[in-house]
Amino acid sequence: MRQLIAGNWKMNGLAGDTAAICGPLRTGADGLACDLLVCPPFTRIVTAANILVGSAVAVGGQDCHVNEKGAHTGDISAAMLADAGATWVILGHSERRADHGESDALIQAKTKAAVATGLSPIVCVGETEAQRVAGDQNKIVGGQLAGSLPEGFAGVVAYEPVWAIGTGKTATEADVAAMHLFIRETLVKQLGDAGNKVRILYGGSVRPANASTLLAVPHVGGALVGGAALNAADFLGIAKAAKA
Ligand code: PGA
Fold first, then answer.
1. Could you identify the atom of ligand 1 that is nearest to the CA of residue 228?
2. Active site (catalytic) residues
3. Considering the entire predicted model, what is its pTM?
4. Domain boundaries, the chain
5. What fold, for 3-239?
């Protein structure tokens, strides 16, 4: 399985930034051993898709609504993402779970909506620092997988320990290995053999300097990258550490 390196720009990226990041990715992605994806804010999906058209880099959104259209002020549907040139969508990021109170049930409904529209979903899970200190990480992540993934799920899962996001702290190799194995076993229980085909990304302060170590851990199917995705050279540096 090719690893997937996905960039989550979060609430960053004006017109100039989008050109500055996507321009170098367009050519830099040639010949890489991994799949590459950028997820700009909604306002720059069209811009990114236009710059990256015909290249090896895909474009995604960072959230979508459960409905296809209608009276939902400020929301964006999966159909709108697809219409703008996106083929992927990140769902259930811990910042959305925290900032918008998104529940597992809502994330599952969004995932169904995304898949029905033809988008590939990346569903995020991960424990907080307090939950890890209490030794509850498997219980929390297991519950999120059970609640957030619809039946027959065939997308991507991203494991992002909340305490490692944007902090410069990364989980140890041993912690990543243990959690990714736990997620793999849980996916197989939940989805049968299809659970073996789900790529499980690691996210949380992934940088060029730690990428080869993290990407070499068994059951790590790629990375979900925040801060380092805002710089084309750093993002490509991570991508170069990925394995086919
Ligand atoms: P980070 O963010 O790489 O800045 O830690 C990762 C994420 O939240 O997806």
1. 3
2. 93, 160
3. 0.98
4. 3-239
5. TIM Barrel (3.20.20)
